Every structure is written in structure tokens, then in C-alpha cells.
Hints:
Number of domains: 1
Radius of gyration: 18 Å
InterPro entries: Glyco_hydro/deAcase_b/a-brl, NODB_dom
Protein name: Polysaccharide deacetylase family protein
Order of helices and strands: EHEHHEHEHEEEHHEHHEH
Domain NodB homology: 60-170
Helix content: 40-55%
Distance between the termini: 18 Å
Amino acid sequence: MLPPAYSALPNRSPLRLPDQARVAVYVVMNIEHFTFGKLGTAIQPHLTSSPEIANYGWRDYGNRVGIWRLFDLFAELGIPVTAALNAEMVELYPPIIEGIRQYQWLVMAHGWNNSTGHSGMNRTAEEELIERSLTLLEKVSGSCPWGWLTPGFSITENTFELLRAAGIRYTTDWVNDDQPYWLETAAGPLLGIPYTLETNDISLCLSARLPGEAFAQALIDQFDQLWREGEQFPRIMAIGLHPFIVGQPLRMGSLKKALQHIQAHPYTWLTTSDAIYEWYTQAYPAPEPA
């Protein structure tokens, strides 16, 4: 597998977002299951005893409590949400699945669970895991998800080809641009929709340990810069969130502040990853095979 072909932003054809928007902002809520007994995302990484309950419990808080605050917040603000959903959530957390349906969050596939990466899988095993994940996720909204985010970015040489062959239309696994672009695979073109490791609560709240106000300001600063630049070159801004991080009481007010700041700006398209895919493929169809 080769990385995407290099493309310099100033050399591209003009991009036009719907309604003359400068920035398309989409929120990705990563809704995840971590297998008990395996290490995972940690607020206290030094806690590594087995079985390790502190970090597991902290993550579990998101599915027990935090997600409900977030359902309420986004409903209050009227902001659409893209739920990057582990397939195993469908079997293990029925109330959350019902909440996704009730609040009409868009479902994007997020692998089987967040303890099962793809790295090191042979082609057949990965193909079976993708098919099993998509079959289960189809039960949430009645149709196969269009998009995919690999747990932990743990891809193989075959991942993008297998995703396209399974019916996936776009991936958010690449974090190298502010605009969508087409990826070539042996199974056909796959759209890359920009995701982020910067405006992501794991980077900001766990790695950088920013307090709530600084977390909000980081989101605001990112948006403001893209909004100014978007007058000439429209941009996509992803916000990557996790219920066990932003669903904690101490961060809810800061998240709300940042989202309201974004909402208050004209020429801003608050949307979902599926809507970005629909707009882009209609305005900028995949190139014909050479």
C-alpha cells in the first residue's frame, strides 16, 4: 500500500461548499467498547495491574453516564453528530443504540471493538471482521454504513481495498488534509474525508492535559483559523470526541462554549460525514480509471 499522492493546496481547483460556506464542521463521537482485561485508552497509564479496573472503569463511565449528557447537549444545540460506532456496541449496549436512533445520530462504522485492531491480520481474517462488523451495524439504521474509521488507525496493507469491496464509500482514517480527496484502491475509488488528531479530546485532554477552558479555546482557535482561510480555500473541520472524556462533568460547559462559538458564525456548515460525502461526490465525482 502506498500513501495518498501528494497534493499542494494552492495548486488545486477551487472547492465550493454548500451555501457558500467557508468551513464544514462535523462532530465525530467515538462510541466504543473495550474488552475487560486488555489495556486501552488510559487517564492514568501507570495503572497496569491485571485485571486493571481504574482505567476500564473510567472508560466505562462514558457508556454508563457520559453519553446521556452528550445526547442532551447536542439535542439542545441542534447540532448533528456522526457516531463512530464499534459494532459490538449493538449487542452489549442496547440503551445507547436506542439513544442513537432516538437522537438520529448518523452511524459510521468503527470496527468491531476498540480492543481489536486490524494490524497483523491476514487478508481473510480482516475481510471476515469487516463483513461481521458491517452486518451488525446495519441493524442500527437499517442500511450499511457509508463510512469507516479503523479502531486505533490500526490498518493493514489490505484495509482500504477490503472496505471498498464491502460497500464502504469513504474512510476517515487519513488526517493529512483539510479537504476531501479520492483514494485509489484495487476495488475502486474510496473517498478520504479529513479526520483529526489535533481537535480530538484524546490529544487535547489526555496527551496535552488541557483544562476545560483551554480545551474549548483550542477548538475555537482551530475553527477561527479555518474560517478565515476558508474564504479562499474552503475547509473541512473534524472534531473527534469520546463520551468517557467530554462526557465528564468538568468538560461539558467548555464543549458547549466551543460549539456555540462555531454555531454563531455565518458561512459555516454544521453537518455529518455522510452529507460531506454526498456533497463531494456530486460536485467532484471520482476520476475515471486510467
